[in-house]
Amino acid sequence: MPAHVYLSELVDAHEWVSSAGPYENAAYVSRESGRIFWATDSGDLEEELPEDIEDGTLYVAVPHKHDLDLGQRLVFRFVDDHIPDAYDQVRGYFSGRGAYARFKDLLQRRGVLEAWYSYEQRAGELALREWAESEQLEVVEGRRAEG
């Protein structure tokens, strides 16, 4: 029987992992309980990780957004769907630094920034559900009860 992992917690963990460069922040899902453990290279977290956290039969690392194809390719799929006339302009943004800030400025000017956030959220949730299924985890709605 697969462990239940709460979608809201999985999304939070994925955002944590993706908020830094690959391998700087990590989160692990227990294959037995569905509980998520958080880690960072900076050592700023109080929670102790289980000693066997690296055992892939017991825990699975939450993927970074790049592992789920939620980086630039997602941006360009959105541009294709919503503002195809800006494709070359956006491609130019991603050839240098500050690409996401310039991209979001463009979306704001075009009035589609909220559509981007919704698109990004849906794509992220779908990718996480597919990833969890591939890891034999069952995604459920809600949040784990405190206690």
Structure description:
The protein has 147 residues and is α+β, with helices and mostly antiparallel strands. A hairpin with a 5-residue loop joins strand 2 and strand 3 (36-40). It contains 5 helices and 5 strands, in the order βαβββααααβ. The chain starts with a strand and ends in a 7-residue tail after the last strand. It has a 3-stranded antiparallel beta sheet with strand order 3-2-4, with helices on one face. A two-stranded parallel ribbon has the order 1-5. It has helices at 7-18, 72-82, 87-93, 99-110, 113-134, and strands at 3-6, 25-30, 36-40, 59-61, 137-140.
Summarize the amount of helix as a percent range: 40-55%
Q: What's the total helix number?
A: 5
Coarse structural class: alpha+beta
Main β-sheet, spatial strand arrangement: 3-2-4
Short description:
With 147 residues, the protein is an alpha+beta fold. The chain is 44% helix and 15% strand.
Q: How would you describe this structure in keywords?
A:
147 residues, alpha+beta, three-stranded antiparallel beta sheet, two-stranded parallel sheet, 5 strands, elongated
SSE diagram, text form:
Layout: E1 3-6, H1 7-18, E2 25-30, E3 36-40, E4 59-61, H2 72-82, H3 87-93, H4 99-110, H5 113-134, E5 137-140
Parallel strand pairs: 1-5
Antiparallel strand pairs: 2-3, 2-4
Helix pairs in contact: 1-5
